[in-house]
Amino acid sequence: MSFSQNDGIKVATQPVKRKLTVPSKNRNWFVLYTAPRAEKKAKLELEYRGYEVFLPMTKSLRIWKNRQKKLIDSVLFPSYIFVKTDERYLAEICRINKIATYIHCGGKPCKVSPECIEAIKCMLSMDQEISVGNDFIEGESVRIVEGPLAGYNGVLVQQKSKTKFGIHLKEINQVASIEICTSALEKF
């Protein structure tokens, strides 16, 4: 942000938004680590600069000390945000305020498959409670055969006598799971 003087008044001017001209075949989904509780600001800044961004959010009921109940938007994966871009832009993205780094393994950036991103978007559109945890228990690999998530592969997880279908994001060691009927599943 720069300042210009106009009749003795300082006026803030924003940098010009640039358009990305990266062919879609070279773009992949990458995971970025943000400053604590700065996911929404980082998303806005990335979108302002022309990047395709995915920040999974859910509505959750919070009860305050005065017994007041309120529905608030909460981030599904705290301190993580997904961006679809070419790998060569990651260093530039990490210089953006509120972005700490990108997730990498062995010096190479971790890519998230588009199928995982689409599965999470589909889970969010179902308006059901989504639980997230890193206490991943190896389960049986299953495929959903009916319903809005039909065709997605994942892991069957049993939690408190409920059957849940989970999408494991290895890059951030988290599982997004949703309650599902076992009749909609098949082993593969």
Automatic annotation (TrEMBL):
Task: Report if keyword Transcription regulation is assigned.
Answer: yes
Check the record and name the Pfam families matching this protein. NusG
Q: Any transmembrane segments, and where? A: none
CDD domains (UniProt xref):
NGN_SP_UpxY (cd09895)
Q: Where is the NusG-like N-terminal domain?
A: 28-120
List this protein's GO terms for biological process.
DNA-templated transcription elongation; transcription antitermination
Q: Does the keyword Glycoprotein apply?
A: no
Q: Which UniProt keywords apply?
A: Transcription, Transcription antitermination, Transcription regulation
Q: Which PANTHER family match?
A: KOW MOTIF FAMILY PROTEIN, EXPRESSED (PTHR30265:SF4), RHO-INTERACTING TRANSCRIPTION TERMINATION FACTOR NUSG (PTHR30265)
The name this protein goes by in its record? NusG-like N-terminal domain-containing protein
